Amino acid sequence: MRIRTDDEVYRVDAVWLGPPKATFPWRARYVAWGVGVLVLLVVLTIERQMGIGFDFFSTAWAVVITVALTTFICSRISHERPFASVLAMWVRELTAPRQTSSPRGGAVSADRIRVHSQRPRPRRSGRSGRRPGGRGPSRGSARKKNKEVRRVRAPRR
Predict the structure, then answer these.
(1) Mean of pLDDT over the chain
(2) Is 48 helix (H, G, I), strand (E, B) or coil?
(3) What local confidence, expressed as pLDDT, does residue 1 receive?
(4) Which parts of the sequence are annotated with region: Disordered (predicted)?
(5) Residue 74 maps to a domain
(6) What is the pTM of this model?
(7) What is the rounded CA–CA span in Å between residue 156 and residue 132?
(8) What is the dihedral of CA 26, 28, 34, 36, to 10 degrees?
(9) Bridge partner list, 29
(10) Which helix (H) or strand (E) holds 61?
């Protein structure tokens, strides 16, 4: 036994195909026409703000950009997620409080490093093999001379 859902009702889009006997060669939902008009106005306004004149090619590019943006926006819109909720989600995402990550300090510079004209020289003592403090040979030198390589046992199986 098959249970039929009501999804077919939502698959039918509110589509205007054009005047009778002279339909458009494409299908566009009513919401796509509204979104397209709004996007075209925004794109034309941005073009004017950028100093692009109003001629055939700038308007043609505005229409191409409008079709691309309208297709992208309408791909996110469905009967379960209407345009108003997508727009509200977008506005809330842009205006949500964010954690500020302001850098501290600024660029790294070498202003506070002291540079001397002569490099520091180690103190020399009268006896060789002794540290500058005169307390005998350093521990590190004695260890390095007596260092042995020990055999590592393999783990038993």
Answers:
(1) 77
(2) helix
(3) 61
(4) 97-157
(5) yes
(6) 0.50
(7) 49
(8) -50
(9) 15
(10) helix 56-75
Q: Please, which residues have CB within 8 angstroms of residue 34's CB and are 6 or more apart in sequence?
A: 83
Q: Which residue has the higher pLDDT, 33 or 3?
A: 33
Domain count, the chain: 1
And the tokens for 122? 């180690």
Which backbone phi and psi does 92 adopt, to 5 degrees?
Answer: -65, -35
Q: Does residue 154 belong to any structural domain of this protein? A: no
What average pLDDT does this structure show over 92-98? 91
Asked whether the beta carbons of 83 and 31 are under 8 A apart, the reply is: yes
Residues 17 and 23 sit within 8 Å (Cβ to Cβ): yes
The domain containing residue 17 runs over which residues?
10-96
Write phi, then psi, for 97 (nearest 5 degrees): -65, 140
Task: Give the whole-angstrom CA distance, residue 32 versus residue 74.
Answer: 6
What is the DSSP code (8-state) at residue 84? Answer: H
Supply the angle between the helices 56-75 and 30-49 in degrees, to the nearest 10. Answer: 130
Token pair recorded at residue 53 = 């004149």
Answer whether residue 134 is part of any domain: no
In a domain, 136, yes or no: no
Tell me which residue of 68, 44, 65, 64 sits closest to 55, measured CA to CA: 44
pLDDT at 151: 65
